[in-house]
Each structure stands twice: as C-alpha cells, then as structure tokens.
Amino acid sequence: MDLIEKVRSRVRLNQEEGEALYDLDLYTLGELADDIRKEKFGNKSYFNINRHINPTNVCADICKFCAYSATRKNPNQYTLTHEQIVEIATNSIENGAKELHIVSAHNPTDGVEWYMGAFRKIREKFPDIHIKSMTAAEIDFLHRQYGLSYDEVIDEMIASGVDSMPGGGAEIFDEKVREYLCKGKVTSKQWLEIHEKWHSRGKESNATMLFGHIETRSHRIDHMLRLRDLQDKTGGFNAFIPLVYQKENNYLKNCNFPTGQEVLKTYAIARILLDNIPNIKAYWATSTINLALIAQEFGANDLDGTIEKESIQSAAGAKSANGMKIDDFISLIKNSGFTPVERDSLYNELKVYE
Ligand code: V47
C-alpha cells in the first residue's frame, strides 16, 4: 500500500512515513487531512471565550526562544499580587470569559503559596470558572525549587481549584535540540511523566510543539509520535497545538523560519499522525489569524479563543497583545466558510453560530 492509500485507509503511520508526508504536495496533503477533519467535525470550527493571565515574568530558567521572561533584553520585571490577579479575572468573567488560562514564568522568590493561593482566591469567588493553569514546566520548577514531588504539586493544584493543564513547555522533545533551546528546564521525559500523572487523576490537558526554529521535520514527527504513544496509554490529551516560533527580542537566531506552506503542512501532518488526539488547534496568536483560517482546510478544527490579552508570543513579535473581539472572531470563521462553535475548555459545545 502506498502512503496516500495508507492515510485514506486510516492506517497508523510510523516515523519514516510521517517524514514522507512532508514530501507530498501541499494540496494532496491538505485534502487528506481535511477528509479526516470533516469525518470528525463536519463543517464546525471551534473557539472559546478565554482570558490569558501571565502573573509574573520573573524566571529562574533561560530559554533562548523566550522574549517574555525578564532578562537583559527585557529588564521590566513584574509580579502580580493575588488581588490584582483576582481583579483581572473578575473583569474578564464579567465580560463573558469562560476560561482563565494562567501561565507564569518560574519565579524563584514568591513560593508555592503565591502560585496556589491565586487559584484558591479565584475559585472562592467564581466556583464555576474553568481554570487552565500550570504547564508541566512550572510544575517541574516548583519541584526543583521547593522540593515537592510532582504528585504533591499536582494534588495541591487540584485542591486549589485547577481544572486542566495547558500544553506549554513541551517545545521540541528531541534531547539535543532541547538542550540547546532550554537546558535545565523540564526534560522531555519529565514533561510526559507529569502529563501522565495528571491524566491518571482523570484530568485533561493539552500538548504544544514549538516549531520553525532550529528543529528539523524529523524532530517534529518524533515529537508528535511521543505524544501519540502517551495518548495511547492515558487518553488525556484534548488538543495538540503547533506553535509557530516568533523571532523578535530573544536569543535564538539562525533559524529555519517556516514558510506558510510549511506551517500548513505541519497542521495537516498533525491531523493525520495524531489519530488519537481529537483536536488540532491553530493558535492564531502564532500562526497569524489569516493562516489559522486557512488551516481550517488543512486539518485544524479549533482556533483557540478571544484571549483578551497575550504577553508571551506578542513579546516575541506576534500581533496578539490585545486578543480578538468575539464578533470579529465569529464573522471571520463564518466568512471562511465554516460554522463557528463556541466550546468550553473540555470541548463541550456551548453555542453554534449558524
Ligand atoms: O511553552 C515561548 C511558547 C508556550 C515563544 O494549552 C513561544 O491551550 C512562539 O503553551 N514564539 C506557552 N512561541 C503558550 C502555550 C499555549 C498557548 C495557547 C494555548 C495553549 C493551550 C497553550 O509559548 C511555551 C513556548 O513554547 N513560546 N516563546 C516564541 N518566541
């Protein structure tokens, strides 16, 4: 059976076949991915009304790709108080946010209680809001800095009101590339172990992949297959999110910045290879909204959300600092030929915009 036949027959592909998908022309690959997407979701395209909150940029780790954390390039340190965090959450929830996506840098001075207390204060005031927070990199940092085991951090998160984990900190799993990008941070094995532990509590999470820097196509396929293996065991991943590398204000140069074609191929390949992760998210903050809308025809079924305020990617040059108005989001999806569906954080449908 040739490769195209295998994809059409839904045969699971290996590393070599995954790499060979990149050699197909864009339209053939797109059509293959689109068929799978349509089979699962018809004409629906998902989004949520969410608020990103980044409580601190003070970071004990140094990742070459990061423009957000406070370093020589960005000397403006900040750490929000619990009161400030709750105030931001309150404003957003009053304006319709249904998910708080809270991600911090690795702050070595404020302690575990600063992280967890914020969740408890939000939860006390808003029993129903979905809190998506703590990347595996943050959990590993709290373990390294304060001597808690992964299990202890995870149990404390759950007790404090965290509902699901975001997919950050995965970067690229290949050990050599990872060492160059972010030596000292959570390893690939640890990242996967932490998500496995989270899933074993019946909880769900997402997975990202940062691409378009020094990695090769082969590294991307390897990354996706490591996620597929874990998903076979746990079934706990909701969405896979390929993040396109943004190149301003950081220390990672000499990169192979991807063309639009390469980005679309990567979404399509994710849809084909990850036969056990339901949602492929085109996170418009890194792909641009234009490419994210096209990605809907290349395997993606989700565009993330309105975001409201975005600090990590916009620090590195993305045009996402002020999020997107819900009406604009809905009409962009409609005008691109899809049916917008507002979802909650766990992909339950809340409203279909016919
Ligand atoms: O892990 C840092 C990435 C991630 C850059 O789970 C960069 O729904 C591009 O994980 N260019 C954090 N990316 C964001 C994240 C995320 C985003 C949207 C949705 C979800 C989800 C998770 O941001 C980090 C890192 O890979 N990042 N710097 C940069 N220069």
Pick out the low-confidence regions: none
How many helices? Answer: 15
Secondary structure category: alpha/beta
Q: Tell me the overall shape.
A: globular
CATH superfamily: Aldolase class I
Bound molecules: ligand V47
Radius of gyration: 19 Å
Number of strands: 10
- Proportion of residues in extended strands: 5-15%
What characterizes the major β-sheet? Answer: 4 strands, mixed
Give a short overview.
This protein has 15 helices and 10 strands.
List the topology elements.
Layout: H1 3-8, H2 15-21, H3 26-41, E1 44-48, E2 50-53, H4 82-94, E3 99-102, H5 111-125, E4 130-133, H6 136-146, H7 150-160, H8 175-182, H9 188-200, E5 205-211, H10 217-234, E6 237-244, H11 260-273, E7 279-280, H12 284-287, H13 289-295, E8 302-305, H14 312-315, H15 326-335, E9 339-343, E10 349-352
Parallel strand pairs: 1-8, 1-9, 2-3, 3-4, 5-6, 6-7
Antiparallel strand pairs: 9-10
Helix pairs in contact: 2-10, 3-11, 4-5, 5-7, 6-9, 9-10
